[in-house]
Inverse folding.
DNA sequence: CATTCGTGGCG
DNA sequence: TCGCCAAGAAT
């Protein structure tokens, strides 16, 4: 594929795009930001119900800033990676205090906020404000690897190179660029998936470099499978789940029962305290931050 | 640049 | 069953 045929993808988007709440015209920039944070490493199906609860409860950043971190962690529930919720609370506080309660529109300022990196900053600038900039997530990387480079899958991420790759195929029109980015991501999510890709339904089938090359297998460096069972991540999750399930502060014994390995358990509790996800009360009880 | 950080569903 | 995967960021 020498040059991406934008019309094919834009046309497909019109007929195939999912009707997600954060894509509706009445969705605020804050709503878009919340969705982007929640969607990091997390499937749409699990995000959607929580997103509705959040926007109903905290329609603007200042509303969330007025809530405690513990309250935010409870509302986050089991979405995973709870530090995202903490950082979003921090970001909401900064937006309310420093930006007039308006989510910033330029990539630079967005990236300066906690929890907002290269992808999320560009996603908000593009999807909430219609700006023209490259948006690179795992879906886009995979689609570009196949359709443009003819590889079976994307190699290890490289922020600078990945950005250049996508900038090279971005439509010149600002309006098209925003839809194009959304469509690229949608294609990766629905058609050009990691496994069991649906090439027969792909709008780029005829010009896809991977198809034209005979769909060679991924040739890059081996990807390390992420373990979970037995990791600190699992232990931290169990500890935090106790606090989420309790109405208030709990004695340490309640935390001790969730994991047998004392050394690992204590290490994880300390790390949760370090991250500000857990606090100790005056009475030596353990609580979600701000809930005592 | 490589690791760490949750959780659950699916083939 | 269990490895793999799901809109990344911070360090």
């Amino acid at each position: 594929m020498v040059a991406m045929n934008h019309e094919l993808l834009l046309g497909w988007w019109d007929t195939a795009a999912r009707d997600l709440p954060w894509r509706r015209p009445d969705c605020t920039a804050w709503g878009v930001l919340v969705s982007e944070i929640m969607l990091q490493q997390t499937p749409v199906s699990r995000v959607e119900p929580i997103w509705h609860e959040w926007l109903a409860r905290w329609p603007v950043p200042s509303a969330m800033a007025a809530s405690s971190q513990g309250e935010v962690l409870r509302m986050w529930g089991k979405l995973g990676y709870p530090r995202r919720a903490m950082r979003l609370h921090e970001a909401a506080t900064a937006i309310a205090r420093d930006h007039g309660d308006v989510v910033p529109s330029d990539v630079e300022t967005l990236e300066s906020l906690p929890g907002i990196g290269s992808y999320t900053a560009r996603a908000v600038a593009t999807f909430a404000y219609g700006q023209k900039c490259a948006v690179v997530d795992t879906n886009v990387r995979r689609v570009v690897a196949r359709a443009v480079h003819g590889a079976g899958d994307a190699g290890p991420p490289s922020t600078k190179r990945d950005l250049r790759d996508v900038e090279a195929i971005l439509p010149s029109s600002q309006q098209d660029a925003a839809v194009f980015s959304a469509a690229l991501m949608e294609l990766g999510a629905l058609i050009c998936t990691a496994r069991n890709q649906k090439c027969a339904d792909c709008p780029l089938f005829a010009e896809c470099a991977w198809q034209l090359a005979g769909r060679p297998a991924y040739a890059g460096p081996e990807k390390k499978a992420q373990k979970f069972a037995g990791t600190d991540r699992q232990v931290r999750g169990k500890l935090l789940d106790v606090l989420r399930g309790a109405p208030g502060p709990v004695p340490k014994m309640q935390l001790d029962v969730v994991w047998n390995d004392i050394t690992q358990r204590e290490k994880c509790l300390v790390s949760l305290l370090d991250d500000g996800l857990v606090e100790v009360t005056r009475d030596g009880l353990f609580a979600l931050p701000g809930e005592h």
Remarks:
- The longest helix of chain A spans residues 174-190.
- The mean pLDDT of chain A is 96.
- Residues 41-43, 45-46, 78-84, 156, 158, 195-196, 224, 226, 228, 231-234, 236-237, 240, 275 of chain A lie near DNA strand B (CB under 10 Å from a C1').
